[in-house]
Amino acid sequence: MRFLNKLPGYNKAPAGFEWTLFKKIPLIFLIGTLFPVAQILYFVFTDKVITAAHQKTIYVCLGFIFSYWFFVGLIFFGCIVVILMKGPAYVADPYELPKENEKFEQFPNV
Predict the structure, then answer these.
(1) How many degrees, rounded to 5, is the angle at CA 96 between CA 3 and CA 100?
(2) Whole-number Å distance between alpha carbons of 58 and 37
(3) What is the pTM of this model?
(4) Are 18 and 84 in contact (CB under 8 A)?
(5) Of the given ranges (3-7, 18-22, 36-40, 101-105), which has the lowest mean pLDDT?
């Protein structure tokens, strides 16, 4: 008995947009994170006093970063699911159910 029996005669689906998007996710992640981080670093490393307006901008940038990471991660896992779903089909081993009551298996069941 082999583990993970492939369904005979099953053809894999061709790769589509999910692989293109999957390969670009690191670049999308970096570019989307770069601009808010640059804004935060500008406020932190300049010699100016951080005012309440600057703090609000920093918090908005942090909120954007975490929301952006969430959505990029969602796209990442979506691509993985599509890639796995397009892979080969697998068959489970058959499991014969025990016969409990012969009367219920007679035809017609009245």
Answers:
(1) 150
(2) 9
(3) 0.70
(4) no
(5) 101-105
Name the residue ranges covered by the structural domains of the chain. Answer: 14-93
**How is residue 32 written in tokens?**
């989307």
Question: In the 3-class helix/strand/coil scheme, how is the chain assigned residue by residue?
Answer: CCCCEECCCCCCCCCCHHHHHHHHHHHHHHHHHHHHHHHHHHHHHCCCCCCHHHHHHHHHHHHHHHHHHHHHHHHHHHHHHHHHHCCCCEECCCCCCCCCCHHHHCCCCC
Indicate the burial class of 83 (C-beta count within 10 angstroms; 0-12, 13-18, 19 or more): middle
- Return the residue matching tokens 């670049």: 27
